[in-house]
Amino acid sequence: MFEVKRLRLLWELNARGTVAAVADALNYSPSAVSQQLAILESEAGVPLTRRVGRGLELTPAGEVLVAETADLLDRLEFAQALVKGTEKYVLGTVRVAVFQTAVLALMPHALRHLRREHPKLRVEMVQHEPEEALYETSARGFDLVVAEEYPGHAVQATASLTRSNLTRDRLSLAVPVGDACYDEWPPIHRLEDAATIPWVMEPRGAASRHWAEQLCRVAGFEPDVRYETADLQAHVRLVESGHAVAVLPDLVRVDRATSFKTVALEGDPHRTILTATREAASESPAVWAVREALAAAVEHLHEAS
């Protein structure tokens, strides 16, 4: 009889590629992971992995076992959700991955809601970039992810994840006002007026960066991106202090007095805020409770605006 914990290690190896990555994800030592995989291979009676260069890859027997393990893990997770559903209270721990503006704008209200409605539920939150967080959720590193999707940049579809849209967030051009503006800057009333102005954007590879660059190129200019940071609060400060312009979502202004003005963009673009979880975890009372709390946070924002 195979040990589920050892099967999970083989599944993780297939998902993450190296013993070191598996050890890091599950808080094991690499030697402990290797030892448990060796025991599993002995139990199977056939080689499950083979060394390729400095790494390991699955043998055909290992691939068969991983495929069956994936189904087994899903069934166990679904069974656990059903068992938890019989409890009077929502219990347990939910690990949530959230991107920055959702951490600031949505999570405080959501956590207050959960503390009031489900005081026995423990929520652990980690700030993560959406693409990585979606992968980690499918790999069971998180139970739920709050992600963003920019126009024309759909998040990667993953068969094991089920998504639900939370809200849409308007995107606007943020520009300095008053004394923060440089005398040589032209008045900015539309995107094209920012063609000669310094910009701040997220680092290359981010969906927001690609979308904003394409927006400028369609308008007929290449943006002068002098400042790069994934921290949108830094974007806000650079705009407010008169050093740059930026495309910013409305959520950065929640519960914060800002001293910049916004210029509407053609087509009134919005990004989509969504949640995603593994299909096997979608019936978990704890996951349902967190999704409900996030929906309540969105409703609170709409009522306050």
TrEMBL record:
One of its GO terms (molecular function) is DNA-binding transcription factor activity. Residues 2-59 form the HTH lysR-type domain. The keyword Ion transport does not apply. InterPro entries: ArsR-like_HTH, HTH-type_LysR_regulators, LysR_HTH_N, LysR_subst-bd, WH-like_DNA-bd_sf, WH_DNA-bd_sf. It comes from the Bacteria. The keyword Transcription regulation applies. Keywords: DNA-binding, Transcription, Transcription regulation. PANTHER family: HTH-TYPE TRANSCRIPTIONAL REGULATOR YBHD, NITROGEN ASSIMILATION TRANSCRIPTIONAL ACTIVATOR-RELATED. Belongs to the LysR transcriptional regulatory family. This is LysR family transcriptional regulator.
